């Protein structure tokens, strides 16, 4: 170690310890505790490890009252999170059979909000969310006061519920809230997602925190809940993150980590966790439909969100390509009685094939321009980017229509005529399992090959970074 660094380090350490310990912007994933009945401590650790690798800060544990798996799952989850330095908070689900009784909420929060793995809001208080439960809004002044009496008012609680059914005006008029979350993460019919609702929340909340929802997809077909509809996914995973970069909300919550029943999971499909599908879906629309590839661009996107502007400050250390599509054209099989839009939300119903498009969608985090080709069934065509980043470095996005083609899917990126990345995905078929169209998406991803000249570039970057650290050390010494 150089003498410069030897005395530089303690000063740096001193500097950083005087910075606020709690980071402002954070990214959560909504986590269905109901699917963890068979989870071991190892499963929890595995999910948390994957979430951390994707730059997530915490899971929002969605739990209904009096569910048999709650006690053991909470115990395992907090143990796993503490061990891996990850964070968790409760999102109490009031939409199921029974809403949460006040005394039970007080007992739960008094026990867990002091846990070192419990997620803390910017002011240090434990963050508590809900899924719905506006009818229980009057409970919360009392809940906060009584838990604070047990654990201290600096510990409990920052209350940031999702009361989407009440809307931003009514929900923000409740004085016990410290912020709100919205569940409006999908566009209407065949429209593109916009930020009108997010802006309504942010303006109603003024300086209180907003949790902005981001989701890649929505297809549910569960007889036990009488649910069978799609909302538009397609470009959404790209579009919505761009909206996050624009609006810069205090928090982002990904919907979801593991809601298999609504097809918006970004976590792994674990055998033994998808019982909700076995119990009431007319066919299995989740098995062999991995969504892990949607996580591959998260470290970059989250880096951009946290760096504030989304204007290219974040280094692209590894170029990635992620690709998603449905496995059959929308008109080949029975549509399963699935509607586009939801009757229970009072929306005008459409055909699912009018909402979801027969296209192969692709997003890539790139250091610079690449040419893209999409081959379906051996018909290999040059394809376009619909969106490219300012300055050439960042997230590229596009899609290519099936155009009646079926067969093997291959997406190829090349730069200056040299192969950069190639993803071979599952076949698009003319037929469907049980003749029902699976409106869920298949997602694949690859990491780009590194060329030797890029390794040279990397070495220079590292050198520059350590020069910068040394400069800062010198500066802090002189001050
Ligand atoms: C599934 O969960 C059940 C109940 O916990 C357990 O007995 C079984 O071994 C699990 N199966 C697999 C394949 O993990
Ligand atoms: C909780 O669930 C059990 C069965 O799982 C039931 O016997 C009990 O009455 C429930 N308690 C409440 C308060 O609903
Ligand atoms: C909900 O309540 C009904 C009737 O009270 C019961 O049959 C069902 O098992 C409950 N479901 C859950 C998930 O607790
Ligand atoms: C209280 O929290 C601890 C973990 O800190 C857990 O092991 C225990 O089961 C919890 N008890 C109750 C009643 O929730
Ligand atoms: C955003 O989408 C909603 C739902 O379709 C629509 O009502 C609203 O007018 C749109 N906002 C803008 C600015 O177009
Ligand atoms: C747990 O495993 C049992 C036995 O395999 C299965 O019936 C149940 O649906 C599983 N639970 C979940 C949440 O997947
Ligand atoms: C695809 O993305 C997932 C999630 O980021 C990652 O774990 C996996 O290694 C990636 N696979 C490839 C081939 O790059
Ligand atoms: C690319 O994907 C890998 C594996 O998921 C991840 O470690 C890496 O951070 C990703 N790169 C970017 C720029 O997001
Ligand atoms: C900026 O992005 C990088 C990821 O490339 C991340 O490590 C860093 O924490 C981000 N900066 C802030 C202030 O969050
Ligand atoms: C499958 O669905 C298509 C479109 O609804 C229909 O024309 C065809 O007869 C069905 N095939 C079988 C084997 O049911
Ligand atoms: C499509 O063309 C690209 C670029 O020439 C090539 O790398 C790729 O292997 C081709 N794929 C197929 C399936 O023909």
Automatic annotation (TrEMBL):
InterPro entries per record: Glyco_hydro_71, Mito_struct-func_regulator
UniProt signal peptide: 1-24
Keywords, sorted A to Z: Signal
A GO MF label: glucan endo-1,3-alpha-glucosidase activity
Domain of life assignment: Eukaryota
Keyword Signal on entry: yes
One Pfam family in the UniProt entry: Glyco_hydro_71
Protein name as it appears in the record: Putative alpha 1,3 glucanase GH71
């Amino acid at each position: 170690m150089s003498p410069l660094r030897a005395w530089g380090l303690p000063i740096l350490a001193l500097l950083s310890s005087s910075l606020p310990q709690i980071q402002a912007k954070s990214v959560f994933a909504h986590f269905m505790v109901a699917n963890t009945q068979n989870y071991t401590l190892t499963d929890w650790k595995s999910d948390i490890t994957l979430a951390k690798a994707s730059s997530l800060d915490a899971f929002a544990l969605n739990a209904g009252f009096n569910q048999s798996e709650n006690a053991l799952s909470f115990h395992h989850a907090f143990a796993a999170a503490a061990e891996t330095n990850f964070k968790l908070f409760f999102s109490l689900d009031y939409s199921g059979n029974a809403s949460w009784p006040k005394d039970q909420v007080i007992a739960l929060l008094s026990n867990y909000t002091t846990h070192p793995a419990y997620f803390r809001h910017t002011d240090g208080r434990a963050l508590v969310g809900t899924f719905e439960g506006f009818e229980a809004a009057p409970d919360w002044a009392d809940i906060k006061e009584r838990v604070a009496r047990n654990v201290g008012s600096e510990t409990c609680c920052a209350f940031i519920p999702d009361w989407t059914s009440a809307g931003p005006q009514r929900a923000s008029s409740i004085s016990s809230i410290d912020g709100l979350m919205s569940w409006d993460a999908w566009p209407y019919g065949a429209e593109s997602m916009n930020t009108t609702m997010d802006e309504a929340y942010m303006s109603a909340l003024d300086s209180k925190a907003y949790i902005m929802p981001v989701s890649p997809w929505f297809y549910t077909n569960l007889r036990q809940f009488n649910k069978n509809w799609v909302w538009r996914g397609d470009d959404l995973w790209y579009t919505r993150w761009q909206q996050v970069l624009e609006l810069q909300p205090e928090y982002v919550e990904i919907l979801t980590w593991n809601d298999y029943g609504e097809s918006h999971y970004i976590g792994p499909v674990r055998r033994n966790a998808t019982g909700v599908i076995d119990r009431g879906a007319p066919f299995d629309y989740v098995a062999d439909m991995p969504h892990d590839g949607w996580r591959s661009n998260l470290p970059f996107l989250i880096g951009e969100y946290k760096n504030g502007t989304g204007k290219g400050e974040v280094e692209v250390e590894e170029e990635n390509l992620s690709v998603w599509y449905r496995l059959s054209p929308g008109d080949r099989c029975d549509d399963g009685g699935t509607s586009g839009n939801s009757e229970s939300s009072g929306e005008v119903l459409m055909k699912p094939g009018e909402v979801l498009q027969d296209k192969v969608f692709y997003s890539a985090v790139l250091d610079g321009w690449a040419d893209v080709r999409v081959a379906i069934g051996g018909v290999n065509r040059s394809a376009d980017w619909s969106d490219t980043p300012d300055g050439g470095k960042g997230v590229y996005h596009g899609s290519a229509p099936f155009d009646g083609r079926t067969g093997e899917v291959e997406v190829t990126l090349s730069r200056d005529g040299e192969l950069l990345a190639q993803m071979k995905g599952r076949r698009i078929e003319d037929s469907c399992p049980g003749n029902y169209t699976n409106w869920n998406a298949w997602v694949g991803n690859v990491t780009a090959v590194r060329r030797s000249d890029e390794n040279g570039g990397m070495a220079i970057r590292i050198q520059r970074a350590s020069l910068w650290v040394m400069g800062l050390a010198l500066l802090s010494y002189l001050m």
